[in-house]
Amino acid sequence: MSRTVYCEHLHKEAEGLDFQLYPGELGKRIFEHISKEAWGLWQHKQTMLINEKKLNMMDPEHRKIIEKAMVNFLFEGQDVHIEGYTPPSQ
């Protein structure tokens, strides 16, 4: 059975994640307040960010960059700025 959360990113009730995908307090916050849909949007942005900045997830400094961008995207309503990326026009 799926669970519903009030998604802080989408500002609506939506299907929640099946389990905590990120460690610690931040992971708990994401599990409780971010929907599957919003997490999927973030995963797409994260991949672009890692590729564009050539980030190495084994590097603690690089993980901090990703975590900051994730918090800003999921909870602060800030989009991830990707150099040289132009979103397709609607």
Layout: helices, strands, pairs:
Layout: E1 4-7, E2 12-15, H1 24-33, H2 36-53, H3 60-75
Antiparallel strand pairs: 1-2
Helix pairs in contact: 2-3
Please explain how this structure is put together.
It is built from 3 helices and 2 strands, in the order ββααα. The protein starts with a strand and ends in a 15-residue tail after the last helix. α2 packs across α3. The mean pLDDT is 92. A hairpin with a 4-residue loop joins β1 (4-7) and β2. With 90 residues, the protein is mainly alpha-helical. The radius of gyration is 14 Å and the shape is globular. It has one domain: YggX-like (Orthogonal Bundle), CATH 1.10.3880. The relative contact order is 0.16. It has helices spanning 24-33, 36-53, 60-75, and strands at 4-7, 12-15. Belongs to the Fe(2+)-trafficking protein family. This is Probable Fe(2+)-trafficking protein. It comes from Vibrio aerogenes CECT 7868.
Query: How many strand units?
Result: 2
Span from first to last CA? 35 Å
**Helix-and-strand structural type:** mainly alpha
Approximately how much helix is present in the residues?
A: 40-55%
Coarse morphology: globular
Strand content: 5-15%
Identify the CATH class.
Mainly Alpha
CATH-derived topology: YggX-like
* Low-pLDDT residue spans: none
Task: Report the CATH architecture.
Answer: Orthogonal Bundle
Oligomer: single chain
Mean pLDDT: 92
Number of domains: 1
